[in-house]
Amino acid sequence: MLIDREASALICIDVQARLAPAIHEHEHVVASGVWLTEIASHLDVPVHATEQYPEGLGSTVDALRTRLNPSRIHQKMHFSWMQTDRARSLRDQVTQWVIFGTEAHVCVQQTVLEAASAGLDVFVVDEATGSRRPLDKQRALERMRAAGATIATREMVAFEWLRRADTDLFKTVQPLLRDGLSHPAIASQAHSLTHQEL
User: Which of 26, 80, 136, 153 is least crowded, fewest Cβ atoms below 10 Å from its Cβ?
Assistant: First the structure.
């Protein structure tokens, strides 16, 4: 099954200022999420973000938050976003959820397992998802795959959303596709996380 931009939403799970620096390879995780969010915004794919207990863990990191519609940033206390009315409403609007975030073995995994159980087609973006311990991420990806989620890379998602190379949309995002995480709009903001948000 290909990922269809008309049927999908991008879900950022808890990439928050006080948690992100503790994540293994956090700069790469954040930059990958920013890159995919930038692609989604160009392609009119709706992007939602969750924040787990923001009073303690902080708000979504600036590099992502500046790219989001404030009405699509959702606070939660349940680890699984599927336990909220907003998530259940989105489930009725789109059938494919492309998910990334932290931590892989807690909020991401619980959201993915419940979304898959509810009949959604779920795609987890490997390099934009992380945990403090690599082993926790590895086991979480294994468990999510076993439950029916597809583990994808950010480029898989982007190129399946695009489908064709002879469109204006492709030309618009081509610099991002070509430069990847070295694109100035991505690299500078993701790198500043450690220095500006703590």
Answer: 153
Q: 55 is written with which tokens? A: 């009073």
Residue indicated by tokens 């293994």:
24
The overall pTM is greater than 0.85: yes
Q: What is the pLDDT of residues 135-154, one digit of tens each?
A: 999 999 999 999 999 999 99
In sign, the C-alpha dihedral spanning 178, 181, 186, 188 is negative
Answer for the pair 128, 40: CB distance below 8 angstroms, yes or no. Answer: no
C-alpha–C-alpha distance, residues 164 and 108, integer Å: 30
Lowest mean pLDDT among 10-24, 61-75, 82-96, 176-190: 176-190
CB-based burial, 16-55: b 16+ in 10 Å, e otherwise: bbebbeebbebbebbbbbbbbbbbbbebebbbbbbbbebe
- Give residue 90's pLDDT band: very low, low, confident or very high (50, 70, 90): very high
Task: Give residue 44's identity as a one-letter amino acid code.
Answer: D
Angle between helices 26-42 and 154-162 (to 10 degrees): 10
């468990």: which residue's tokens? 143
Contact between 27 and 190 under an 8 Å Cβ cutoff? The reply is: yes
Give me the pLDDT at residue 179, please: 81
Which ranges of 43-167 does DSSP label H, i.e. alpha helix?
Answer: 54-57, 62-65, 85-91, 109-117, 134-146, 154-162
Amino acid in the structure at residue 105 = H
